[in-house]
Amino acid sequence: MDPADEQWWRGAAIYQIYVRSFADGDGDGTGDLAGVRARLPYLADLGVDALWFTPWYLSPLADGGYDVADYRAIDPAFGTLGEAEKLISEARELGLRTIVDIVPNHVSDRHPWFRAALAAGPGSPERELFHFRPGRGEHGELPPNGWPSEFPGAATWTRVPDGEWYLHLFTPQQPDLNWAHPAVHREHEDVLRFWFERGVAGVRIDSAALLAKDPELPDFVKGRDPHPYVDRDELHDIYRSWRAVADEYGAVFVGEVWLPDTERFTRYLRPDELHTAFNFDFMTRPWYAAELRESIDGTLTEHAMIGAPATWVLCNHDVTRTVTRYGRAESSFSFATKRFGTPTDLVLGTRRARAAALLSLALPGAVYLYQGEELGLPEVELPPERIQDPMHFRSGGLDPGRDGCRVPLPWAADEPHHGFGSVTEPWLPQPADWASYAADRQAADPGSTLALYRTALRIRRCEPGFGDGQLSWLDSRDDVLAFAREDGLVCVVNMAAEPIALPGHKALLLTSGPLDDEGRLPQDTAAWLRT
């Protein structure tokens, strides 16, 4: 990408790296920055424009690094701050921008602020940085309110020895910050500057709609507006202030904003707030043409109203991998319905995932790829005794958790631990068939999923009609998605039960699978054309 292009984020292809599972550079079983640096040429060859790193900061890893103890230090398991600076620089030399993760809703219970708050006691200034409250009941034995947890079934309050309770919408190891306190604002703006000054091009904001809380901390009543802690109007002043910081450096924001109301969602994308936000609606829809078209239309319409680019994502470090999800009878995604033993047809899922890749890469806006997606990796159902994700434990063991999409990547089919780099067993076990998905094996196969992604990303980068821009639907049957982009580019996705004839075209640029003997597009297959 052109390093001088200030609008790069509007149509970029961004690759998500979960460092712990990407590549191990020192052989200890955990992925690290050395492993990522060694694989930067692979990422450049893949054809992505930027790398988004999930939290790499100092953390006890109670929730996969989303419990941050120090934003200015790299966790020793991953490397050092100096290595992070080298990685940012080396990636930039290869044309890859860097996006880091910030988790502003909470910190780790090992964070100096929280340790000081516990030591200082009730009524202290240190406790004002968090949400400490006396309990209800005759002896304060009941939590201050009944807010539900982001981890279903879990508690949101923990009592400390002096009798007070503190709020945590996630785990007890992740105390929520009090965003009504000016010190919290100052600290996070300083953290933003710290990383922007080291060459980071953008920041992804975790749980971006949860920061502000009703100061009265009232009980949660479903349907009551405004919500006591989700999507409160005070949030927008926070992000306006952050935007001013980002603009000093020419940096960008992408928000993790889970909201069902698209009008409320797009408020975060006004010109003086966040640049982009994840489009989770598209990711959670089932593999039906009408559902996907509805999501595409709604997304593009709402974004067009404020001039913001859409974003498209098929999976990430929290959700079931695309190949597995699209091979199931219920191909939509919901955290509430995840269960062990759900059957899936991986042949069907792979065919649909390949078609979905061409669909998402052809849509207007930016696209996010989660590591291993380009290898067509399926979800791994881990034995319960190997699961580390707190979501599993807080569901009482019903939810298999998120570790199944975080299994260390297979790089080399014939090397120990499939080339992940570990001398010892990786932190999560790899399945026996992982060699068949290895990057080196796929690199030698022109029909592999890796080859499909490399070709698609190359075409997308070279064709100005892709990326940000306009989309117009073409006449087609209800179980087919067919749309035109600029410069005569067309994408067709066949979800019908039988093959369909392709529209007239000058060139067939790419297909997600072979055409049939009559040159028709088979079921669950996509094609890019030039008309």
From the alpha-carbon coordinates, what is the Rg to the nearest angstrom? 23 Å
| Uncertain residue ranges | none
Terminal-residue CA separation: 26 Å
The proportion of residues in beta strands is 5-15%
Shape: globular
Quick check: average pLDDT? 96
Which strand order spans the largest sheet, edge to edge or round the barrel? 11-10-9-5-2-1-13-12
Short descriptors:
alpha/beta; globular; 531 residues; five-stranded antiparallel sheet; single chain
Structure description:
The chain is of the alpha/beta class. An 8-stranded parallel β-sheet has the order 11-10-9-5-2-1-13-12. A 5-stranded antiparallel β-sheet has the order 14-15-16-18-17, covered by helices on one side. Strands 6-8-7 form a 3-stranded antiparallel β-sheet, with no helix packed on it. Helix 6 runs parallel beside helix 7 and helix 12 runs parallel beside helix 15. The chain is globular, with a radius of gyration of 23 Å. It starts with 12 loop residues before the first strand and ends with a strand. The model has no long low-confidence stretch (mean pLDDT 96).
Short description, anyone?
The protein is an alpha/beta fold and 531 residues long. The protein has 15 helices and 18 strands.
